[in-house]
Amino acid sequence: MGGFRLGVDVGDTFTDVLLVDERTGAAFRAKIPTTPHNLAVAVLNGIRDTCRAAGVDPKLIGHVLHGGSVGSNAILQGSGARVGLVTTSGFRQVLQLARSYAAEPLARPEDTVEVIERIGPDGSVLLPLDTGAARIALRRLRAARVEALTISLLNAGVNDRHERLLGRLAAEELPGVPVSLSAHVLAEPREYERTVSAVVNSYLRPQAARAVRDLETALAAAGITARISVLRNDGRATAAGHAAERPIAAVSSGRAGGLRGAAHFAGLAGFTDFLSLDLGGSSADVALVRDGRPRIDRQTAVGDLTLRATGVDVHTVALGGGSLVRVSKSTMELRIGPASAGALPGPISYRNGGTKPTVTDVNLALGYLPEAIAGGRIRLDLEGGRKAVAALADALALPTPERAASEVLALVNDKLFRALRLVSVRNGHDPKDFPLVVFGGAGPLHANALARIAGTWPVIVPPSPGTLAAYGLAGTEPSEEVVAAPGLTGAGPVRLRAVLADLVHSAGDRLAARGVPRTDLKAQADLTLSLPGGRITELLADLDSSALSAGDPRGALGIEPEAEIVELRVIVRGPRPPLLTHEPLPGRKNPIPDALLRTKKIMVDSTLVAADVYDRTKLLAGNIIPGPALIVEPDSTTLVQPGHAAKVHPSGCLLINPE
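^ that's the sequence the OP posted. Answer follows.
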């Protein structure tokens, strides 16, 4: 059974669903309020809506590709599990010492215990584990009611014997509590990096396991037997069960999906190098893309944390439409985030019990939002939004609510500019060297103002920007990953060549079983290497026929002569599945009359102006929309400021430039 696949992007505020007909590539979208008590409920609601629009039975869905920002948002907002940490005696403060700068530890000092043991740097056992004392330490954590456990011992990266033994003891002393062994999360000698990565993995495991379990249960109850895959940080799909055990590998999978979609539409518009901004409900992701491909880094940054988890190179800040806006009582200064209203209760204007002002309420008060969003599911409370902003004005001693709203947006845009500048400068560039691709539900509202600050022209707004990440998820190519058995240290050319061929064949068999032709497969070797002095490095190399048949496979892969193979993975990918995009019919400079919905008053730069409001679905290629204007669609609204104009590109993208 199959014929349809589903891309799902779960955010803090909204869940985006994209249903794709695998025969034709036709796509159907839905934007649904996220259901925090059970994330699967929103997914099922989206399935019902998209299947109804497509006129198909949900049971025909054969594959669900799942991603989102729930994990990264949990880190940014401090809403993950309570984690217990077990370390070697004398290393209790490994998270606090860090690498000169320490982010707020996700395992509390009072939930950190030490055990008596010692493994040497060469893997030898210098001091056996004191199991009796270890049990006592574990019972302390049980009494503290930790919800997840991390075991990170000195030099476990070269010998995990004691970690595995402690894991067995923990299963007895803390039954039902998920355990992350640092050597299994990150097989490296770096103590801090290995520990913080394992702690983050534990921090997210209960939430990730619950999300997968709830989704499997909900789909089964609906009679949907689809295979579930979760997008990893690097854009590859992995099995849902693996993602539940190693959520750190998918902590920001929504980023990867969004960047896939952004690169696709930027390419259609003629741009292969660009900056991107994904502004959602609780977080903003900024990236630099060169040659149409997001840069893959061996590290993933979330807020102040840098994790050893391969992913797209994205900088994330805790800022979105749902970010709470407040005034500091001590300094009387504006503060935005990191806390978010989320889906429940949501912004005040959502009429769902929210009592604290958000960035969304500010945008509504300035006139930028329509009466209803998310395809009409949420009717906004304009009066409530205005009252929230008026309260901010009173707290700041400003003369009008509009002045307070302008101050909020100036701070939001300044934070976003700082993120754009950081990503550009650390890669040796100036932001104004690139156009800016914006997406996410809130991104197109802030894009024009942000480009004025950063000089990033043109601004490119893809079609359906609020569901672009789901589009990217649904377009993920099929892939399989196979890991070589340990023991490749010192392997000669003949053995290494045989291992590589066997792994490629095994992964190809799995894809063939899924109906992917062998003739369309591409393979890569993902290696973790140990260099003299204990330095660990990674290498990603293409595995084509010449590399597989080379007399010296190490040289063909680019492995340095003195390097030893710690871990070898082979990834085999099939072709990217087809996705149809909406290409508007050709038109002239002026939009057709039906595209103009109305004219409304909005506030731009503290000035009240009359803005035309357009229905994006009725715009034609070649149409030029001068500002001030609002271009609305079911999942987002684009603001074109005075002195600027948006042109409809044949790809369906809006290109905003100064006039």
